[in-house]
Amino acid sequence: MAASHAARLQDWLKRNHIKSGSATRWLFEVPDTLEAQTAILRLLNEMESRFDDVIEAQEGQLFLEWDAIREELSLLPHPDAPWNALLGQLQEAFATPAYPESQRRRAERIWQDFLFLQEEEVSPLQVPAGWIAALDYLLQNLYFSSKATQEEVGRRHNVSTSTVGLRFRALVETLGVHLFDHPARKRLLAQRAIAIEGGRMSEAEFNQRLLRGQLIRA
Questions:
Q1: How many C-beta atoms surround the C-beta of residue 108 within 10 A?
Q2: Domain end among 19, 49, 75
Q3: Among the four 43, 131, 147, 210, which has the fewest Cβ within 10 Å?
Q4: CB contact at 8 A, 133 and 163
Q5: Are 25 and 88 in contact (CB under 8 A)?
Q6: Among candidate residues 20, 25, 15, the one with its CA nearest the CA of residue 55
Q7: 59 and 88 both lie in a single domain
Q8: CB neighbours (10 Å) of residue 112?
């Protein structure tokens, strides 16, 4: 019988000596309180932000599905939840070459996680474009080295800068999304090139040092 995706993540963390606190116990049982649900969703967002590329490089693209983990742990909003309709608008708004499928799916996961935890706090009177703009700005922070400002994103979606900022903070504070440090990423890419292309170590060795927090000196 194939291991669940939650079990695969737990096994990968263990094999790479990554300690993630008490929230990892919820990878083996369905969290039944809001506190536990919040903890595991925050953990999943942190893990995806920090290690998704490395997991795929080590294990292959099909090894781990972040969507499947949420389904296994019953962490998806009810399909009839009114704000679920925003997913269709998200797909339309991000249906350009500027947003690869992996990034569009990440935006959908973030929205579903937020909706699962905060559905009662999302007013029917709020403009959907405000949340789409906030998710767009969040993607800018997660993936883009030359990110747009809140003002630019607001103009793109025809909402105010303050709306972008307010909704963005709600998403980040609820889910604890790890925002990408682009200067650090550039340094890491340079280190990777020197270490691997220069023959100093293999891709696997580089990833092991990275995951264990060992700094590589150029």
A1: 17
A2: 75
A3: 147
A4: yes
A5: no
A6: 15
A7: no
A8: 21
- The DSSP symbol for 126 reads S
Instruction: Report how far residue 214's alpha carbon sits from residue 218's, in angstroms, rounded to the nearest whole number.
Output: 13
Q: How far is CA 197 from the centre of its chain?
A: 29
Stated length of the chain: 218
Of 90, 79, 27, 55, nearest in space to 211 by CA: 55
205, 54 contact by CB (below 8 A):
no
Instruction: Tell me the residue range of the domain where 3 lies.
Output: 1-75
Across 54-63, 101-110, 152-161, 197-206, the highest mean pLDDT is recorded for 152-161
- Residue 181 makes CB contacts below 8 A (sequence gap 6+) with none
The phi, psi pair for 180, rounded to 5°, reads -70, 135
Residues of the chain above pLDDT 70, percent: 84
Of the candidates 66, 83, 79, the one whose C-alpha atom is nearest the C-alpha of residue 118 is: 83
Nearest-angstrom CA–CA distance, 179 and 50: 9
218 in any annotated domain = no
Average confidence (pLDDT) over 59-68: 87
Q: How far apart are CA 194 and CA 191, in angstroms?
A: 5
Cα–Cα dist 85/114, whole Å = 14
